[in-house]
Amino acid sequence: MNSATLQIICLRSIPAIDAASLAPFEAKEALFRDEHGFLLYLTREAPCEPTEEQIVRLGVREALLWLNEPPNDQGSFWG
User: Is 62 part of any domain?
Assistant: First the structure.
């Protein structure tokens, strides 16, 4: 890979419920690979809250754990 390459590995949506309004919404997670390893991009737009975004650098083991999370554990990287 050259220094400008960013490859998407996986993208998923996670259904959630806003605690304040009880309105449903979806959080999004995307796993990317670059020349240094893996990046996990997290975003959510809850109805009564400002948009929240995070970028987390992951090692190989963490990326594999994220990829293999069962559906009921998805969203665990929101911490």
Answer: yes
